[in-house]
Write a structure and sequence with these properties.
By secondary structure, the protein is of the alpha/beta class. 35% of the residues lie in helices and 13% in strands. The model has no long low-confidence stretch (mean pLDDT 97). The structure holds glyoxylic acid (GLV) (2 copies).
């Protein structure tokens, strides 16, 4: 008999079909996430779970699933999962790192260019019938990326992929991370500074940290006030890394020039979020990893982790290796 698995949303076929060869899959058919009560009900007799970042997988869910042995998250971030609770219960947790790095870095550059050169504002301007004069020396003046200083907070895989791109734009690159990366400093010609220096000197600040208790509200009033009034903030990490109320104040009062955001404090962000009324903000609905190829590769990695575990092997992208001391892989 195949082990049972609950999947909280449809994922691309390339991974889904492989999973179906090995597991009996109960797939939540709707676009919206299943409510927590539904998750608790559906995991009762499952051996494996495939959640998304929108699904809270805490101790309560795990305790409702006495047979659960592996949670194979379809995302690189896993702040929705209580990993400590999982490890204590001998439950393996895996994610999908690596494959989305370049795709997220591409999108980070897209947002940075969009806010700096006012692409979205200009698009709306034409569509609203406001383009009446052919060309004007003072139309839509923006900011150059070329030669500007970029501050990268979090120099992991994604942060360093952004640095590689920014180098092509001839940007001066500063970074801050809890881990210093001297190897990359040489390779990329980037400079390590403390966070306050980064905030004070950068023309663009981009966030590439995971959401943890230490990074929650990392960018608040104090940090926004350190930034230049001409600087832009870009976020493709997690919304809660920025204190959104402070950001709204900063944008309204001109402490910074603008922000480009793929992620929000609450997702979906309510249509009456004051951020959405501001012209100096570019927004996207958490789509930085959304390329067809990457979303398919993520699905394959979810499948590879599940299948390795089923075969009694260490899943390739295990988040909590300590769990192997609690229980060996396999159902
Ligand atoms: C998306 O935000 C991810 O963590 O994969
Ligand atoms: C995620 O892939 C990261 O480490 O930046």
């Amino acid at each position: 008999m195949k082990p049972k698995l609950f999947m909280t949303r449809e994922i691309p076929e390339r991974g889904l079909n492989k999973i179906k060869e090995h597991f009996e899959v109960d797939l939540w058919p709707e676009e919206a996430p299943p409510p927590k009560e539904v998750i608790i009900e559906r995991v009762k007799d499952v051996d494996a779970l495939v959640p998304l970042l929108t699904d809270p997988i805490d101790a309560e869910v795990m305790d409702a699933a006495p047979r659960l042995r592996i949670i194979s998250q379809y995302a690189v971030g896993y702040d929705n999962i209580d990993v400590k609770a999982a490890t204590e219960r001998g439950i393996y947790v895996t994610n999908t790192p690596g494959v989305l790095t370049e795709t997220v870095a591409d999108f980070t550059m897209a947002l940075m260019m969009a806010i700096a050169r006012r692409v979205v504002e200009a698009d709306k301007y034409i569509r609203q019938g406001k383009w009446k004069v052919g060309w004007h020396p003072l139309y839509f003046l923006g900011t150059d990326l070329y030669g500007a200083t970029l501050g990268i907070i979090g120099l992991g895989r994604i942060g360093s992929a952004v640095a590689r791109r920014a180098k092509g734009f001839n940007m001066r690159i500063l970074y801050y991370d809890v881990f210093r990366r001297e190897d990359l400093e040489k390779e990329l010609g980037i400079k390590y500074v403390d966070m306050d220096t980064l905030l004070r000197e950068s023309d663009f600040v981009t966030l590439h940290v995971p959401l943890t208790p230490e990074t929650k509200d990392l960018i608040g009033e104090r940090e926004l006030k350190l930034m230049k009034p001409t600087a832009y903030l870009v976020n493709t990490s997690r919304g809660k890394v920025i204190d959104e109320k402070a950001l709204i104040k900063a944008l309204k009062e001109g402490w910074i020039a603008g922000a480009a955001l793929d992620v929000f404090y609450k997702e979906p962000t309510p249509p009456d979020n004051p951020l959405l009324e501001l012209d100096n903000v570019v927004v996207a609905p958490h789509i930085a990893s959304a390329s067809l190829e990457t979303r398919s590769r993520m699905a394959e990695i979810v499948a590879e982790n599940l299948i390795a575990f089923k075969e009694g092997k260490k899943p390739p992208t295990l988040v909590n290796p300590d769990v192997m001391k609690v229980r060996p892989p396999g159902f």
